[in-house]
Design brief:
The structure holds 3 protein chains of 3 kinds. By secondary structure, chain A is an all-alpha fold. Chain A is built from 11 helices and no strands. In chain C, α1 runs antiparallel to α2 and α2 runs antiparallel to α3. Classes of the chains: A mainly alpha, B mainly alpha, C mainly alpha.
Chain lengths: 304, 217, 101
């Protein structure tokens, strides 16, 4: 726990969120081949619009949980970012079981999204919350096996050891199934694309349907912060973290995280979303056995 | 050491107060998440006690369990959001006395017995030791726990599958009868669906015929 | 943070859990009471392991077994609640008057 790590993390969070917001505007326009709104100013304009709009509320909402949900989401993103080693020996939360802490953040994200949908006391948010719980919990299981696969060559549950074990060869080469499966979890954690059952367009923005004004802005900000946190974690676990020639550690980490973020946002806008029952079948029948296969590959590689 | 003690007192207060509030709150979903916060506080206390894996695994497991518990609350409780004040208790005074007697007896046992003093060495790698123990000396216990969990999964599916042993899955979706085993109160769903279908087809056919007449003219 | 303090906190959790398990009419709330009792047991076992057993590995194993018991109890408990509701449409303990029915 040091001041330098805290400062670097805050900078990563703020600039990462800004970068993610810019990507959110630029990538759909690029995919569609149109030159839409100016991506550099749209995030600020949208934020100002949200903050200036009138606050509406529903009848008898669970106000405590409604206000708590975006704050808790942001805190979970912060904790997920805090476990990541920024450089040799520079970690904000130096824990022997950092990977399990990341798993706990994933599980608590499902709780937070459910609370966000529950507290509005309206049908569409509740449907979004229920669908997300049904899909989000199995997605988290898939990611847990992938993360255990990363922990095997490191022979430890701490994220620093996982980065240290990638000094020679990155995990994306050693465990090729790992990063694609982990990306699926990323789409689920940040409520994007094929896993966006919580805030989808076909449910009138799902759990955010009754949000208005600053509450909506804070939920979207928390989603982008979780995107930053997840991308940094994916870069740490599979792309070698802060290892790299020349530039200082944190800068390499930021570059790799930016790459993962771009791919995630693009995937979110390209892959379609199926019905919840089909996605449930896919998760339990296809992705979970694939994660077992990844775990077996990692285990066989780690045998002495 | 003083901030560890303060943190321990704060976390134990959170654990006990939220555990008490579970049974005093009206909103059932809030009750399950209050229990989750009690478990999270206990998990963080275990972090302070140099058991990092057990602490965070408790938080992890309890987040998922309480999420499922919240869904079951909404399924089975009358008042999941606490919009009306409600307190469904029986033998209230007896259970308060039982709780206090249990706490008093345990507290007396704790305060008057000679507790051993052998703290864990601070530099010990707790997680690696646990790993070697689980897959070394105590592998039989560990594997038995694994098989027990598999048996639990099988038992849960048997008890609650769609064509269940103790009643089909669709039986529960009817509202309960006015007497046990009787007809469900309210409308009967089967004939209404047939009636709606016939009504939908009628005007549709007439509408398309009118359209064709309009086109011809 | 002495062993006595930790055990007192665990005893308080067990007491509150016992109150909940005995007083609640609804099945699901009853299970929450049982969860609280197991919470207290878990804290007590880790307290003993950390401050009285010098970190012997079997103590953490006991904690893992308690967590497995919690998981099994919740799973089978919810399945039984569902089965009882489907068979007798009862979701409170008061509705189950006799064992034979």
């Amino acid at each position: 726990m040091s001041m330098l790590a805290c400062v670097i993390l805050l900078l990563l969070l703020i600039f990462g969120t800004l970068f993610a917001a810019i990507l959110d505007t630029a990538i759909p326009a690029w995919i569609a081949g149109q030159s839409g709104a100016n991506p550099l100013t749209t995030p600020f304009r949208r934020c100002a619009q949200f903050l200036a709009v009138q606050r509406l509320t529903t009848e008898r909402p669970d106000m405590l949980n409604w206000l708590l949900a975006p704050a808790a989401y942001l805190i979970l993103a912060g904790i997920g970012l805090g476990v990541v080693p920024l450089s040799e020996g520079l970690v904000f939360i130096d824990l022997q079981t950092g990977l399990v802490l990341w798993g706990a953040c994933e599980a608590l994200t499902v709780v937070v999204v459910f609370l966000h949908g529950w507290s509005a006391n309206a049908p569409f948010p509740l449907i979004g919350a229920y669908r997300y719980v049904a899909i989000g919990l199995p997605a988290m299981l898939v990611s847990m096996f992938v993360v255990i696969g990363v922990a095997l060559p490191a022979q430890s549950l701490s994220v620093s050891a996982a980065v240290e074990a990638q000094r020679g060869l990155w995990n994306i080469v050693k465990q090729p199934l790992g990063l694609p499966l982990f990306m699926l979890l990323g789409l689920s954690l940040t409520l994007r694309g094929p896993f966006d059952y919580a805030d989808p367009f076909d449910l009138a923005a799902g759990t955010s349907a009754e949000d208005s004004g600053p509450l909506r802005a804070s939920w979207r900000f928390a989603r982008l912060a979780m995107l930053v946190s997840f991308s940094t974690m994916a870069a740490t676990l599979f792309l070698g973290g802060h290892h790299g020639p020349g530039l200082p550690g944190p800068l390499w980490l930021a570059l790799k995280a930016a790459g993962v973020m771009t791919i995630l946002v693009a995937l979110g806008h390209v892959i379609a979303r199926t019905t919840p029952s089909r996605m449930l079948t896919l998760l339990w029948v296809l992705f979970l056995p694939l994660s077992f296969l990844d775990l077996i590959i990692a285990g066989v590689e780690s045998l002495p | 050491m003083i901030h560890t003690d303060l943190l321990f007192y704060a976390l134990s207060t959170i654990a006990i107060v939220s555990g008490w509030r579970v049974f005093r709150t009206d909103s059932m979903v809030r009750a399950s998440f209050l229990l989750m916060s009690s478990f999270i506080a206990v998990g963080l206390i275990m972090l302070l006690l140099a058991a990092p894996y057990i602490g965070i695994a408790t938080v992890f497991m309890m987040a998922v369990e309480m999420m499922v518990m919240a869904l079951f609350m909404v399924m089975f409780m009358m008042n999941p959001a606490g919009l009306n004040p409600m307190q469904m208790v029986h033998q209230h005074r007896l259970s308060i006395i039982a709780g206090i007697v249990a706490f008093a007896a345990l507290a007396l046992a704790i305060l008057f017995s000679d507790l051993p003093q052998d703290p864990v060495a601070p530099g010990k790698p707790g997680v690696a030791d646990l790993g070697f123990e689980l897959l070394g000396n105590s592998m039989l216990i560990f594997e038995t726990a694994g098989v027990t969990l598999l048996a639990t999964m099988v038992g849960t599916v048997v008890l609650s599958s769609r064509s269940g042993r103790f009643g089909g899955a669709d039986e529960g979706s009817r509202p309960p009868g006015l007497e046990p085993g009787g007809e469900p109160a309210g409308r009967k769903p089967e004939e209404k669906a047939g009636g709606d279908m016939h009504q939908c087809h009628g005007p549709g056919r007439q509408h398309s015929e009118k359209q064709q007449d309009g086109d011809e003219q | 943070m002495t062993l006595a303090a930790i055990l007192l906190v665990a005893a308080a959790l067990i007491g509150i859990g016992l109150y909940g398990a005995l007083s609640q009419q609804s099945f699901v709330m009853l299970m929450m009471g049982l969860e609280l009792i197991l919470n207290g047991v878990l804290l007590a076992s880790i307290g003993f392991w950390s401050l009285a057993l010098a970190g012997a590995p079997k103590g953490q194993l006991l904690a893992i077994i308690v967590m497995a018991v919690m998981a099994v109890e919740m799973a089978i408990g919810f399945a039984l609640v569902t089965a009882v509701y489907r068979k007798r449409q009862a979701d409170t303990t008061e509705s189950l008057k006799t064992m034979r029915d």
